[in-house]
Fold each of these.
Amino acid sequence: MKKVITYGTFDLFHQGHANLLRRAKELGDYLIVGVTTDNFDIQRGKINTHDSLMTRIEAVRNSGYADQVILEEFNGQKISDIIRYNVDVFAIGSDWEGKFDYLKEYCQVVYLPRTEGVSSTMLRHKNPLRIGIVGTGNIAGRFADEARLVQHIELTAAYSTDENQCREFCSSKCIEVQAKSFEDLLGACDAVYVATPHFTHYDYVKRALLAGKHVLCETPFVLRTSEARELLDLASEKNLILMIAHKTAYCPAFSQLVFMVKSGVIGKVVDINASVTTITDENSEKMDVSKFGGSMNENACFPALPIVKMLGTDFRQINFYSIMKNGVDIYTKAVFRYDSATASFQVGLGAKTEGNMTISGTKGYIYVPAPWWKTDYFEMRFEDQNRNRKYFLPFDGEGLRYEIRDFAMTVSMLKDSVSSDSSSEESVHRSIITEDEIMAMTRIQENYINETNLFKLK
Ligand code: C2G
């Protein structure tokens, strides 16, 4: 029996995929199809997949050409599969011409003609999510660059109160509409990315939601729990997505770390410590007391995330110890008391610490080296060092592509659920950062602003 193998993502399964599988099957008697896992696609830089792995497998099965479907999970697996399944022919589309010649040592390699005029990319481009950006500073620039890598979205407009900065932004990032007002911006998009100074977030987010736009809001979201509650309720009432652009939450390694801790690999968590410090120019707006500057307002949302994710939102007390200068905290240490755990973090704009994170448990601990908020690697450590493990996951570029992808996917899932069941009043969508977690993180900020258990040091 002549065995043929081929691989692919098979996203939004189309005629090109079907033709490829038919031609591959015609090369032998038995066809094995390797479908890429989401993790493998992320690792090889393909972050725009629309369909879930199960949907993609189903589509390959339904084509009727595959005798066996396997998963492709890592680089180099093709060699191992060819040997393991005793494969005679490796087939792939001609867009890969020459790329898999190294497999000729193991079997025959055939590049099959690619079907012109159809591709998953084209299908994904059909109805892109049109995003408008408000605030055109540094973070918006990084966002625009990374958004290019996520294919089912389009940056259609930008708005800033600084007209010159906005003009330059639109021209350098190839954004067509330089909106004259925020209302103009709302008219040119389906969703808004809010990247303005944090004390303006509440107002922009509220106006965007009232206009029926989905929102991705930079961190810190808002500084008052009443504002957070109102905006979350407004989004749910209007059946819109409101997501926080906390890049750490969406990066693959951080998610894996959280799931591992929750599954009990280090036992019960007894303590978490994390720090984020950046030495900042004293004249920067980030140090301006009238603009809610300072280390806590600027940076606390980063270490607050792992604490509320892994210890929960029910902290009993937080003590803050701040070193002040010109009315803002240049360094703050926060110490949390939970019913049966402690946590602490250090944030600074005028002092530097090691930016690592340690999660301590009753069986072992997890260590994430600096900068832990851009997690791509962590270690699980035990008393018996033979059990220690290192985990490496992708974190490409600025890491914003993961949150942008998640936002686009969440909005598209919401749209799908609404169109498939127009009678349902509220559609189901999941969010990586839950409402409770958003409220708890805002409560931490609010406690600080209210000076609850705040000890100001000289
Ligand atoms: N294909 C085709 N015609 C198209 C589109 C795709 O013949 N119009 C072929 C591709 O050449 C590939 C297969 O369909 O052989 C699956 O394509 P993708 O889903 O885009 O997967 P790809 O990223 O090419 O994965 O390990 C993974 C493989 O290396 C290839």
Amino acid sequence: MIKVGINGYGTIGKRVAEAVSLQDDMKIVGIVKTKPTYELRGAIDANYPVFASTKSKIPFFNEKGIEVSGVTEDLVKIADLVVDCTPGKLGVNNMSMYKKAGTKAIWQGGEKHAPIGTSFNSLTNYSESIGKDYVRVVSCNTTGLSRTLYPIMNEYGINNVQAVMVRRSGDPKDSDRGPINSIEPVLTVPSHHGPDVQTVITDLNIQTMAVKVPTTIMHVHCIIAELNSEPDVNRVLELWENTPRIDLIEGFLKNKDSKIRNLPGTAEIMELARDSLYTRGDLNQIAVWKDGVHSFGKKLYYYQAIHQESDVVPENIDAIRAMCELESDPSKSIQKTNRALGIN
Ligand code: NAD
């Protein structure tokens, strides 16, 4: 059993902790919190040992009747591997602490690739992380782009990808984020997403743009991929059907001459995830609209939706397996993780 610590128990940290607990080859030995806020509830209910981020924070936890098992360094010492889920650009500062303790670490997509050196996606480059000490699981958007582009690239070859990310402005719990009445473009082109995909699919020629919109539940990608030969839409759908962690959905149902709204947008997709009784109503899979896939000559057009809070969660589990050399075959790890998480 690999002993896993979670540093930073927010949107991603709590989900990775739950996912680790569902595996039979790894377990949670503790989580780090900076403050005894409401988000500790899940950790206490799950009996995860709680560690304060620093010594000075311990009295604050004690005042609230929460016993702590130590501070971050104590957890790092007892863990084989720490999944660092602290806010983006902060986590990398913890590298020296992990190095000093000889503990492996995984960071999330808010960190840059360079200081960590290896970026991870279960489908595209699992083997690069086998036995590695420090790995970064790429962001939710990059994970989504990689999952759907990789099988297309393998079948047809890709000359160029142009994609626009329509990004949620904050997670549902982030009442301090915005905009709430505006659409904000990322004025730097390419946005960071394209170069980020190249950290897990090298040689992919891709440029991205992004806008932030007032919604909290999902991102949507509009993708145009120019392939090396003319794609057949049915074959493309078949490829995605056979790719793990992609769900093909229908925006509209056709009934004789009428079109019935089925899953036309992100609101209905998340309702389906809740109806499916997925944990927290999460959707680890990338949702691709079947009826939104089109081709003109060598160009393939499609839309996909990303549940930003959860698509990277199974990737973190696979990354742990690769780094700790529990499994060398990516598809076996993917299947094992999917089974444990109830991903169809
Ligand atoms: P979050 O703000 O929900 O959670 C971060 C947690 O870390 C909070 O509980 C915060 O209190 C805690 N924290 C802050 N400083 C700390 C410290 N010094 N030590 C320990 N804990 C500390 O953030 P998140 O959305 O979970 O993001 C975490 C990482 O995952 C980031 O790199 C982010 O870019 C990435 N990510 C986020 C999403 C998403 O949509 N939320 C998706 C994919 C990747």
